[in-house]
Amino acid sequence: MDLNALRIFVEVARLGSFTAAAKSLDVAKTSVSNKVQQLEKQLNNRLLERTTRTVSLTEIGSEVFDLAEEMILSAKKIEELADGTLREPQGRLRIAAPSVMVEGFLGAWCIEFRKLYPKVVLQLLATNRNLDFQQEELDFAFRNVSSMPVADLVTKTLFKFRCGYYASPMLIRHFAPVTHPEELRQWPGVGFTVDGKIQPWQFEEQGNCLEFEANTVMRFDDAGLAKRAAVFGLGVTFMSCHLAEGDVRAGRLIPLLPEYWPPPLYTSQLYQDQEHMPLKNRAFIEFVDRKAHSLAPYVS
User: Fold this and answer.
1) To 10 degrees, what angle do helices 18-25 and 29-43 make?
2) DSSP collapsed to 3 states, 36-53
3) Looking at domain 3-87, does it have CATH number 3.30.70.1520?
4) How far is residue 115's CA from residue 32's CA, in Å, rounded to a whole number?
Protein backbone atom coordinates (compact mmCIF):
# COMPACT_ATOMS: atom_id res chain seq x y z
CA MET A 1 0.00 0.00 0.00
CA ASP A 2 1.36 3.39 -1.09
CA LEU A 3 1.27 5.59 2.01
CA ASN A 4 1.83 8.71 -0.09
CA ALA A 5 -1.23 7.87 -2.21
CA LEU A 6 -3.27 7.52 0.97
CA ARG A 7 -2.04 10.92 2.17
CA ILE A 8 -3.09 12.51 -1.12
CA PHE A 9 -6.47 10.77 -1.06
CA VAL A 10 -7.13 11.96 2.50
CA GLU A 11 -6.19 15.54 1.61
CA VAL A 12 -8.50 15.54 -1.44
CA ALA A 13 -11.37 14.16 0.64
CA ARG A 14 -10.71 16.58 3.49
CA LEU A 15 -10.63 19.66 1.22
CA GLY A 16 -13.20 18.39 -1.26
CA SER A 17 -11.09 19.45 -4.19
CA PHE A 18 -8.20 18.10 -6.29
CA THR A 19 -7.02 21.65 -6.95
CA ALA A 20 -7.04 22.61 -3.27
CA ALA A 21 -5.28 19.36 -2.32
CA ALA A 22 -2.56 19.95 -4.95
CA LYS A 23 -2.03 23.45 -3.60
CA SER A 24 -1.94 22.25 0.01
CA LEU A 25 0.58 19.50 -0.79
CA ASP A 26 2.56 21.68 -3.20
CA VAL A 27 2.37 19.16 -6.04
CA ALA A 28 0.88 19.23 -9.54
CA LYS A 29 -2.85 18.63 -9.88
CA THR A 30 -2.17 15.85 -12.39
CA SER A 31 -0.01 14.04 -9.82
CA VAL A 32 -2.83 14.26 -7.28
CA SER A 33 -5.35 12.91 -9.76
CA ASN A 34 -3.02 10.09 -10.91
CA LYS A 35 -2.29 8.95 -7.33
CA VAL A 36 -5.98 8.77 -6.46
CA GLN A 37 -6.74 6.85 -9.64
CA GLN A 38 -3.91 4.39 -8.92
CA LEU A 39 -5.26 3.86 -5.41
CA GLU A 40 -8.78 3.22 -6.70
CA LYS A 41 -7.41 0.78 -9.27
CA GLN A 42 -5.41 -1.05 -6.59
CA LEU A 43 -8.47 -1.34 -4.34
CA ASN A 44 -10.76 -2.06 -7.32
CA ASN A 45 -13.28 0.44 -5.95
CA ARG A 46 -14.26 4.04 -6.62
CA LEU A 47 -13.38 6.08 -3.53
CA LEU A 48 -14.50 9.53 -4.68
CA GLU A 49 -17.56 10.84 -6.52
CA ARG A 50 -16.47 13.60 -8.85
CA THR A 51 -18.60 16.34 -10.37
CA THR A 52 -17.54 19.55 -12.08
CA ARG A 53 -17.87 21.41 -8.79
CA THR A 54 -17.50 18.96 -5.90
CA VAL A 55 -15.64 15.87 -4.76
CA SER A 56 -17.29 13.60 -2.18
CA LEU A 57 -16.57 10.23 -0.61
CA THR A 58 -18.32 7.09 -1.73
CA GLU A 59 -19.53 4.65 0.94
CA ILE A 60 -16.39 2.54 0.75
CA GLY A 61 -14.35 5.70 0.28
CA SER A 62 -15.59 6.91 3.67
CA GLU A 63 -14.39 3.68 5.33
CA VAL A 64 -11.01 3.88 3.56
CA PHE A 65 -10.71 7.52 4.62
CA ASP A 66 -11.06 6.63 8.34
CA LEU A 67 -8.54 3.79 8.09
CA ALA A 68 -6.13 5.89 6.02
CA GLU A 69 -6.16 8.66 8.63
CA GLU A 70 -5.24 6.08 11.30
CA MET A 71 -2.41 4.73 9.14
CA ILE A 72 -1.05 8.21 8.46
CA LEU A 73 -1.18 9.08 12.16
CA SER A 74 0.60 5.83 13.07
CA ALA A 75 3.25 6.47 10.43
CA LYS A 76 3.79 9.94 11.84
CA LYS A 77 4.23 8.54 15.34
CA ILE A 78 6.74 5.98 14.05
CA GLU A 79 8.72 8.72 12.29
CA GLU A 80 8.71 10.85 15.44
CA LEU A 81 9.84 7.87 17.51
CA ALA A 82 12.66 7.03 15.10
CA ASP A 83 13.71 10.67 14.96
CA GLY A 84 13.80 10.84 18.75
CA THR A 85 15.87 7.67 19.18
CA LEU A 86 18.35 8.97 16.62
CA ARG A 87 18.88 12.16 18.60
CA GLU A 88 18.79 10.92 22.21
CA PRO A 89 19.36 7.45 23.69
CA GLN A 90 16.10 6.02 25.00
CA GLY A 91 14.41 2.70 25.60
CA ARG A 92 15.28 -0.40 27.61
CA LEU A 93 18.73 -1.88 28.17
CA ARG A 94 18.86 -5.33 29.77
CA ILE A 95 22.28 -6.29 31.15
CA ALA A 96 23.54 -9.42 32.92
CA ALA A 97 26.76 -9.70 34.93
CA PRO A 98 28.26 -11.67 37.83
CA SER A 99 27.25 -10.36 41.23
CA VAL A 100 30.83 -9.42 42.13
CA MET A 101 30.94 -7.08 39.09
CA VAL A 102 27.53 -5.60 39.88
CA GLU A 103 28.53 -4.90 43.48
CA GLY A 104 31.90 -3.61 42.33
CA PHE A 105 32.31 -1.34 39.34
CA LEU A 106 29.35 -2.18 37.08
CA GLY A 107 26.54 -1.14 39.40
CA ALA A 108 28.12 2.29 39.79
CA TRP A 109 28.70 2.55 36.05
CA CYS A 110 25.03 1.81 35.29
CA ILE A 111 23.86 4.42 37.78
CA GLU A 112 26.14 7.01 36.19
CA PHE A 113 24.98 6.04 32.68
CA ARG A 114 21.33 6.42 33.73
CA LYS A 115 22.06 9.91 35.05
CA LEU A 116 23.57 10.86 31.70
CA TYR A 117 20.67 9.38 29.71
CA PRO A 118 17.44 9.67 31.75
CA LYS A 119 15.25 8.25 28.97
CA VAL A 120 17.03 4.88 29.13
CA VAL A 121 15.45 2.22 31.36
CA LEU A 122 18.17 -0.04 32.76
CA GLN A 123 17.64 -3.59 33.97
CA LEU A 124 20.77 -5.03 35.61
CA LEU A 125 20.71 -8.75 36.43
CA ALA A 126 23.24 -10.00 38.99
CA THR A 127 23.88 -13.63 38.08
CA ASN A 128 26.81 -15.99 37.60
CA ARG A 129 24.87 -17.99 35.02
CA ASN A 130 25.77 -17.48 31.39
CA LEU A 131 22.30 -16.44 30.24
CA ASP A 132 21.06 -16.98 26.70
CA PHE A 133 20.78 -13.65 24.88
CA GLN A 134 17.67 -14.59 22.92
CA GLN A 135 15.72 -16.25 25.73
CA GLU A 136 16.53 -13.55 28.28
CA GLU A 137 16.24 -10.66 25.77
CA LEU A 138 19.66 -9.36 26.76
CA ASP A 139 21.36 -6.36 25.23
CA PHE A 140 24.68 -6.89 27.01
CA ALA A 141 26.46 -9.35 29.26
CA PHE A 142 29.69 -8.97 31.20
CA ARG A 143 31.77 -12.06 31.84
CA ASN A 144 35.20 -13.08 32.98
CA VAL A 145 36.44 -15.16 30.06
CA SER A 146 39.63 -16.44 28.50
CA SER A 147 41.11 -14.62 25.54
CA MET A 148 39.03 -16.78 23.17
CA PRO A 149 35.90 -15.12 21.66
CA VAL A 150 32.40 -16.36 22.52
CA ALA A 151 30.55 -17.91 19.57
CA ASP A 152 27.89 -15.76 17.84
CA LEU A 153 28.60 -12.75 20.07
CA VAL A 154 30.85 -9.74 19.85
CA THR A 155 33.37 -10.22 22.68
CA LYS A 156 34.98 -6.93 23.61
CA THR A 157 37.85 -7.17 26.08
CA LEU A 158 37.74 -4.36 28.63
CA PHE A 159 40.74 -5.24 30.78
CA LYS A 160 42.67 -8.22 32.07
CA PHE A 161 43.10 -9.11 35.72
CA ARG A 162 45.04 -11.59 37.83
CA CYS A 163 43.45 -14.16 40.09
CA GLY A 164 45.12 -16.17 42.80
CA TYR A 165 44.69 -18.43 45.80
CA TYR A 166 44.22 -16.98 49.26
CA ALA A 167 43.80 -18.28 52.78
CA SER A 168 43.52 -16.73 56.22
CA PRO A 169 46.40 -16.86 58.73
CA MET A 170 44.29 -18.97 61.09
CA LEU A 171 43.86 -21.66 58.41
CA ILE A 172 47.51 -21.58 57.36
CA ARG A 173 48.62 -22.25 60.95
CA HIS A 174 46.97 -25.68 60.82
CA PHE A 175 49.09 -26.91 57.87
CA ALA A 176 52.73 -27.31 57.00
CA PRO A 177 54.17 -24.60 54.75
CA VAL A 178 52.95 -25.20 51.20
CA THR A 179 55.55 -25.34 48.42
CA HIS A 180 53.64 -26.94 45.51
CA PRO A 181 50.02 -26.86 44.30
CA GLU A 182 49.62 -30.62 44.78
CA GLU A 183 49.90 -30.07 48.52
CA LEU A 184 46.70 -27.99 48.44
CA ARG A 185 44.67 -31.11 47.62
CA GLN A 186 44.57 -31.78 51.37
CA TRP A 187 43.49 -28.27 52.29
CA PRO A 188 39.79 -27.36 52.60
CA GLY A 189 38.57 -25.26 49.71
CA VAL A 190 35.88 -22.62 49.32
CA GLY A 191 34.54 -23.11 45.81
CA PHE A 192 33.04 -20.67 43.33
CA THR A 193 30.36 -21.90 40.94
CA VAL A 194 29.51 -20.74 37.42
CA ASP A 195 26.26 -22.02 35.89
CA GLY A 196 25.93 -24.18 39.00
CA LYS A 197 29.21 -26.00 38.35
CA ILE A 198 32.15 -25.89 40.73
CA GLN A 199 35.27 -24.50 39.10
CA PRO A 200 38.41 -26.65 39.31
CA TRP A 201 41.62 -25.20 40.65
CA GLN A 202 44.13 -24.36 37.94
CA PHE A 203 47.83 -23.64 38.24
CA GLU A 204 50.66 -23.05 35.81
CA GLU A 205 53.94 -24.89 36.20
CA GLN A 206 56.74 -24.25 33.69
CA GLY A 207 54.22 -23.32 31.01
CA ASN A 208 52.01 -26.34 31.63
CA CYS A 209 48.52 -26.29 33.14
CA LEU A 210 47.98 -28.24 36.35
CA GLU A 211 44.31 -28.75 37.20
CA PHE A 212 42.46 -30.68 39.87
CA GLU A 213 39.25 -30.71 41.87
CA ALA A 214 39.60 -28.96 45.20
CA ASN A 215 38.61 -30.49 48.52
CA THR A 216 35.60 -28.19 48.58
CA VAL A 217 33.86 -27.74 51.93
CA MET A 218 31.72 -24.75 50.89
CA ARG A 219 30.37 -23.60 47.54
CA PHE A 220 29.08 -20.17 46.56
CA ASP A 221 27.91 -18.54 43.36
CA ASP A 222 29.01 -15.21 44.80
CA ALA A 223 32.72 -14.35 44.90
CA GLY A 224 32.16 -11.90 47.76
CA LEU A 225 30.72 -14.63 49.98
CA ALA A 226 33.55 -17.00 49.04
CA LYS A 227 36.02 -14.34 50.14
CA ARG A 228 34.23 -13.86 53.46
CA ALA A 229 34.37 -17.60 54.11
CA ALA A 230 38.09 -17.59 53.37
CA VAL A 231 38.65 -14.66 55.74
CA PHE A 232 36.92 -16.66 58.49
CA GLY A 233 39.39 -19.48 57.95
CA LEU A 234 36.98 -21.95 56.34
CA GLY A 235 39.17 -22.75 53.35
CA VAL A 236 41.39 -21.65 50.48
CA THR A 237 39.62 -19.73 47.74
CA PHE A 238 40.44 -18.49 44.25
CA MET A 239 39.60 -14.84 43.60
CA SER A 240 40.74 -11.74 41.79
CA CYS A 241 43.73 -9.96 43.26
CA HIS A 242 41.73 -6.75 43.11
CA LEU A 243 38.97 -8.26 45.26
CA ALA A 244 41.48 -9.64 47.80
CA GLU A 245 43.66 -6.53 47.93
CA GLY A 246 42.09 -4.87 50.96
CA ASP A 247 42.10 -8.04 53.07
CA VAL A 248 45.71 -8.77 52.11
CA ARG A 249 46.78 -5.30 53.25
CA ALA A 250 44.87 -5.78 56.51
CA GLY A 251 46.50 -9.17 57.10
CA ARG A 252 43.21 -11.08 56.91
CA LEU A 253 44.28 -13.03 53.81
CA ILE A 254 47.63 -14.33 52.60
CA PRO A 255 48.46 -15.23 48.97
CA LEU A 256 49.44 -18.87 48.42
CA LEU A 257 51.91 -19.96 45.71
CA PRO A 258 51.72 -16.83 43.51
CA GLU A 259 54.52 -18.26 41.33
CA TYR A 260 52.06 -20.99 40.22
CA TRP A 261 49.03 -18.82 39.57
CA PRO A 262 47.34 -19.24 36.16
CA PRO A 263 47.49 -16.63 33.37
CA PRO A 264 45.27 -13.55 33.66
CA LEU A 265 41.57 -13.64 32.86
CA TYR A 266 39.74 -11.01 30.83
CA THR A 267 36.67 -9.01 31.72
CA SER A 268 34.68 -8.73 28.52
CA GLN A 269 31.54 -7.02 27.34
CA LEU A 270 29.40 -9.24 25.13
CA TYR A 271 26.64 -8.24 22.75
CA GLN A 272 25.00 -9.30 19.52
CA ASP A 273 26.26 -7.80 16.30
CA GLN A 274 23.59 -5.65 14.69
CA GLU A 275 23.61 -3.91 11.33
CA HIS A 276 21.51 -1.05 12.70
CA MET A 277 22.40 -0.81 16.38
CA PRO A 278 20.11 1.48 18.43
CA LEU A 279 21.62 4.69 19.73
CA LYS A 280 21.13 3.57 23.35
CA ASN A 281 23.30 0.51 22.71
CA ARG A 282 26.01 2.50 20.95
CA ALA A 283 26.02 5.06 23.75
CA PHE A 284 26.43 2.31 26.37
CA ILE A 285 29.33 0.70 24.49
CA GLU A 286 31.13 4.05 24.23
CA PHE A 287 30.43 4.81 27.91
CA VAL A 288 31.82 1.43 29.03
CA ASP A 289 34.92 1.97 26.88
CA ARG A 290 35.68 5.21 28.70
CA LYS A 291 35.05 3.74 32.15
CA ALA A 292 37.08 0.60 31.46
CA HIS A 293 40.02 2.68 30.26
CA SER A 294 40.07 4.56 33.57
CA LEU A 295 39.70 1.37 35.66
CA ALA A 296 42.21 -0.83 33.79
CA PRO A 297 45.38 0.40 35.58
CA TYR A 298 43.90 -0.65 38.93
CA VAL A 299 42.90 -4.21 38.00
CA SER A 300 45.50 -5.29 35.43
Assistant:
1) 110
2) HHHHHHHHCCCCEEECCC
3) no
4) 49
- Residue type present at position 175: F
163-263 folds as D-Maltodextrin-Binding Protein; domain 2 (3.40.190)
Cβ-based neighbours of 188, under 8 Å, separated by 6 or more: 171, 215, 216, 217, 234, 235, 236
CA separation for the pair 220, 192 (Å, rounded): 5
Task: Quote the pTM value.
Answer: 0.63
Cα–Cα nearest to 96, from 134, 125, 68, 116 = 125
- Give me the residues paired with residue 237 across strands: 166, 190
Choose the most confident range, by mean pLDDT, from 40-44, 71-75, 196-200: 40-44
Determine the Cα–Cα distance for residues 262 and 208; give it in Å rounded to an integer: 10
